From TrEMBL:
<feature type="transmembrane region" description="Helical">
    <location>
        <begin position="161"/>
        <end position="184"/>
    </location>
</feature>
<keyword id="KW-1133">Transmembrane helix</keyword>
<feature type="domain" description="Type II secretion system protein GspF">
    <location>
        <begin position="266"/>
        <end position="388"/>
    </location>
</feature>
<keyword id="KW-1003">Cell membrane</keyword>
<feature type="transmembrane region" description="Helical">
    <location>
        <begin position="369"/>
        <end position="390"/>
    </location>
</feature>
<keyword id="KW-0472">Membrane</keyword>
<dbReference type="InterPro" id="IPR003004">
    <property type="entry name" value="GspF/PilC"/>
</dbReference>
<feature type="domain" description="Type II secretion system protein GspF">
    <location>
        <begin position="62"/>
        <end position="185"/>
    </location>
</feature>
<feature type="transmembrane region" description="Helical">
    <location>
        <begin position="215"/>
        <end position="233"/>
    </location>
</feature>
<comment type="similarity">
    <text>Belongs to the GSP F family.</text>
</comment>
<dbReference type="Pfam" id="PF00482">
    <property type="entry name" value="T2SSF"/>
</dbReference>
<dbReference type="InterPro" id="IPR018076">
    <property type="entry name" value="T2SS_GspF_dom"/>
</dbReference>
<keyword id="KW-0812">Transmembrane</keyword>
<dbReference type="GO" id="GO:0005886">
    <property type="term" value="C:plasma membrane"/>
</dbReference>
<keyword id="KW-0997">Cell inner membrane</keyword>
<dbReference type="InterPro" id="IPR042094">
    <property type="entry name" value="T2SS_GspF_sf"/>
</dbReference>
<protein>
    <submittedName>
        <fullName>Type II secretion system protein F</fullName>
    </submittedName>
</protein>
């Protein structure tokens, strides 16, 4: 149920707003948690707009509009009220309404955003908290927008690069299933009645065809069961999860790109936070938290401990084995010249460009590889079927 309320703040001001609650008692508890005293409440018809999920593009637009309005001198509460009343996105309307209510009750922007982890991860909250203290909120918001845009573009590019190979893989799988379950079984009786010893390629084809035809359910049960088992063990065993993450980084072609994407994300977050005035140890810790791969996270944690002991960043990263020599040299030069923020920005740019180029190269490699695989499968089937037929015709002519 949705309530329109009038409440009293700790400093005696009267505020109005709307909020979802099961009943008036829960409404009063919710307001009390935000340091508000309920004066009057009225149940209104809920428009059920909170169910719509926030898309990445919505979040980027939200921060972009906030940056633009604050830079233009529009008060934050006025911006949130206008966004609540005019946004075309129901989810953004609810976000703006909740932020407006919390800030009006005395919370800071970073504190209000912390209640929405899907909109503001800890890194963003820390950046905004620092910006509130230094008075650089519009500049930091612009940097957050640039970072979120880069992530969104990288995700879109990676998805685009994998779409065609995934389509080709599905086509190959469909062709193989059709041949093995429809065409080859019709030829098995003919091949076996030819009265000659079948070559190994033909016997293998017959065995594969019979397995797919008679035990097709195993092709569903075994991979699904293995995936669920691995996921269960990885969830409950940290050592196994770290071993699994290490193996992911060693997958041919793909592993190196995954490694670069993770480091690009870390470099982007670390550079953004350091440039915005976040203490270097806090920036390292938050950069570590956004890293999902345990193998890389462990290396970052080791580097952070070295920095805590007074080791320079370039030396700490060199000892972690995470970054290539070029990146280490860039960091070392930045430390020596007192321009570490510029060096970190260059590292972030280096990885962003490297990831884009690597994804493009992967796309150009996967397409011909899948084409060759399809050709080899079709060639094997043709050789296995036509080979015995050709041998029989040759013997008849002789």
């Amino acid at each position: 149920m949705r309530f329109a309320y009038r409440a009293l703040t700790e400093d005696g001001r009267t505020v109005r707003g709307q909020i979802e609650a099961e009943n008036e008692s829960e409404l009063e508890r919710e307001l009390a948690a935000n340091r508000l005293t309920l004066l009057e409440a009225r149940a209104i018809r809920s428009r059920r707009r909170a169910r719509a999920p926030l898309q990445p593009r919505d979040i980027i637009d939200f921060y972009f509009q906030m940056e633009s309005m604050l830079r233009a001198g529009v008060p934050l509460l006025d911006f949130l009220a206008d966004l609540r009343d005019t946004s075309a996105s129901p989810a953004i309307q609810n976000l703006a309404e909740d932020l407006h209510r919390r800030i009006e009750a005395g919370a800071s922007l970073s504190e209000a955003l912390a209640a929405h982890p899907k909109v503001a991860e800890p890194m963003i909250c820390s950046l905004i908290k620092t910006a509130e203290a230094t008075g650089q909120l519009p500049d930091v918001l612009a940097q957050i927008v640039a970072s979120l845009k880069w992530r969104d573009e990288l995700k879109a590019q990676t998805k685009k690069a994998l779409t065609y190979p995934a389509f080709v893989f599905v086509v190959i799988t469909a062709v193989v299933i059709f041949l093995m379950t429809y065409l080859v079984p019709q030829l098995i009786t003919f091949l076996e009645n030819m009265g000659q010893t079948l070559p190994f390629a033909t016997r293998a084809l017959i065995a594969v065809s019979r397995f797919i035809t008679e035990s097709w359910y195993l092709l569903l049960i075994v991979p699904t069961g293995a995936t669920l088992l691995v996921a269960f063990v990885a969830k409950h065993n940290v050592r196994f999860r770290q071993w699994l993450h290490r193996q992911v980084l060693q997958i041919p072609l793909v592993g190196a790109i995954i490694h670069k994407i993770i480091l690009a994300r870390f470099a982007d977050v670390f550079a953004l936070m350091y440039r915005s005035g976040v203490p270097i140890l806090d920036a390292l810790q938050l950069g570590e938290e956004v890293t999902q791969n345990l193998e890389i996270r462990t290396a970052i944690e080791h580097a952070r401990r070295l920095v805590t002991q007074g080791v320079p960043i370039s030396q700490a990263f060199a000892g972690s084995g995470l970054f290539p020599p070029l990146v280490i040299r860039m960091l070392r030069v930045g430390e020596q010249t007192g321009a570490l923020d510029d060096a970190l920005a260059n590292v972030s740019y280096y990885y962003a460009r490297d990831v884009n180029e690597s994804v493009a190269r992967l796309q150009t490699l996967i397409e011909p590889i899948l084409t060759v695989v399809l050709g080899l499968i079709l060639g094997w089937i043709m050789f296995a079927v036509l080979g015995p037929v050709y041998d029989t015709i040759t013997k008849i002519r002789m």
